[in-house]
Each structure stands twice: as structure tokens, then as C-alpha cells.
């Protein structure tokens, strides 16, 4: 079975083809960073307009690169949520129309399930089921028990900002640019550990829930106290902030792994690209950690095509209405 995947939930137009026997056949991505950079964040209206502009040429280019025609596709999978409504509607309308014109199924994919399964795009050893997953993106920070593909139990989540959102907002306060996560992380490389210390929120609580908005406020206070900031100040604050976020994620994940007596963890979503996070989690000798390949950590079409293919193989295709959801908890799947 060959599935075309379409991702348009935020500021990346991603198109991919996934084959149930051969795996990922090809993918293309158009990032809108240049379009949003001057606003310091994603402007939803601009995002939707750019998806409309890019989606058809990108699909045509991918089919041509893969030497395939639309007639050789068995299904179209599109991100149906969660995400920006206007942006989602572009992929949903395009995907469902294409599927209807070809007489093939259209599959509504949950974006977070796409991220969750993205480590399966890596070559080599796959995480055995059941496993625990730490999903850390710009919109979500969640710990999920994956009993089987499609059967997910939410164990804990951020009660306010997602980890990626805290990275983005703190970077913005320091004037590090957009997207903030990679910018702050690059800044932290030159930072000295120990000059500043941020709290590890909610790590004294017995639950797996998290909270990251306080770290941003804490950063704002330090920044105001030390302004104007030198480059070294920015690096040291970035380092302390990054260490606090990663430590918090590490403590919560470790607690969950111990409590559920599971020896392996999947980490996915944009923040899973963070090098300090990977170093710290890889140092856990008692647990094995699986990540997506770096190019599939942030939003992409490959993870949607793959998740769509899993759904197709399970006979799970969407109803024949155009359906998108700005909120769509993964535990409701
Ligand atoms: O998964 P993703 O592309 O989009 C959502 O589904 O939200 O994640 C984007 C988030 C942004 O907040 C971005 O700043 C963060 O992932 N991110 C990073 C890094 N790369 C991306 N955060 C920290 N370190 C990174 N290297
Ligand atoms: Zn995402």
C-alpha cells in the first residue's frame, strides 16, 4: 500500500510517500521560517496562504522525483489536527479532494500520533511495545503509555506552556529570534553551567504532570535584573534554562519508566532535536531511548504518511466529510 502524506498544521508544508513494504519512499518540506521571522512567531493567516501556494507544486515535484503518478497511490493521509485551523483546512481540503477524485480513501491523521510514531522512521532497531513516550513539541509536553499502535494512555502533561513554547518565549524575551528553541539551544553551547540556576517545576509532586510557564517568568526576571545583557549573559541564561527544562523532563520520564516498569522510552516532537536533551537521556544507563532521525523531529510529511499507512493497514479511514480539529487529544484515538 502506498500512501501520500500531507502536513499543514502550522508553518511547514510537508509532503511524503510511504510504502507499507518499502517504508518511506520520499518526502519534501517547505519551511515558512523566512515568512514569519520578522513577526517573531507564526502568523496563522500567512501560514494558510503559503500552504495554498506550495502544496500543489510540492506534491507534483515529489511524485516526479519518486517517478510515480497519482494513480499509483492507494490513499491520501492528511493532518486533521491539532493545529492552526486555517492551516489544517488547506491540507484537509486538498487531501480529501485528491482522494475523492482518485476514488481512494482519505485518512485523517492526528499530528501528535505522527510525532509519536516518527522514531519508527529510523533505520535499525524499533522500540518494542508497550513503551512510554515523551512528546515534546511547540504545542504539547506529554508522557504517554503506548500499549499498541493506536492505543494510547495519557500519563501526564504540561498544565500550562509546552516545553517548546517555553523555549520559544524565553528566546523571544532575550531577542534570540525565531524559531526560539534551536536559537536558544545554540546560544547555550557557549554558556557556563552554574552561574544561574532555574527551578525544576513540579518535580516535588507525585504526578507526571509538568509546568513550564514559570521558567519563562523566572527567565524574564533574571533578564530584567541583568539588562543590558552581554552575549555571555545570554549564553549563561540559555544554558541554565535549557538545563532546567531537560532536567525536569528527565526526572518526570524516569519516574514514569520506574513506576510502569518499562525499560524503554521514545522521545519525539521538535524538542527531541535538542542536543543537551539527547546527551542527558542517553546517559541513563538503565533505560534505552529512541528518537526520530533529526530531520523528522520537527513537523514533516513523512511522519503523517507513515501514521496514515498504519491507519490504512488497520482499515481505519476517515468519514467522507472534511474534518479538522484544532484540539484533538491523542488519548481519544
Ligand atoms: O514538533 P514541532 O515542529 O511543532 C509542533 O508540533 O509544535 O515542534 C516545534 C518546537 C518549537 O517550539 C521549537 O522551538 C522546538 O520544537 N525545537 C527545539 C529545538 N528544535 C525545535 N527546542 C529546543 N531545542 C531544539 N534544538
Ligand atoms: Zn509538530
Strand order of the largest sheet: 3-2-1-4-5
Strand percentage lies at 15-25%
CATH architecture of the largest domain: 2-Layer Sandwich
Mean pLDDT: 95
Number of domains: 2
Number of extended strands: 10
Helix content: 40-55%
Helical region count?
A: 10
Order of helices and strands: EEEHHEHEHEEEHHHHEHEH
First-to-last CA distance: 22 Å
Structural notes for this entry:
The structure is a single chain. Helices cover 40% and strands 19% of the residues. It folds into two domains: 2-117 and 296-332, Nucleotidyltransferase, domain 5; 127-291, Nucleotidyltransferase, domain 5, CATH 3.30.420. The chain is α/β, with parallel strands linked by helices. The model has no long low-confidence stretch (mean pLDDT 95). The chain has helices at residues 33-36, 44-65, 85-102, 111-117, 163-173, 180-188, 213-226, 231-259, 275-282, 302-313; strands at 2-7, 12-19, 23-31, 75-81, 106-110, 131-136, 141-148, 151-157, 264-268, 288-290. It is globular, with a radius of gyration of 20 Å. It has a five-stranded mixed beta sheet, sandwiched between helices. A five-stranded mixed beta sheet has the order 8-7-6-9-10, sandwiched between helices. It is built from ten helices and ten strands. It binds 5'-O-[(R)-(carboxyoxy)(hydroxy)phosphoryl]adenosine and zinc ion. Zinc ion (ZN) binds at residues 111, 115, 137, 299.
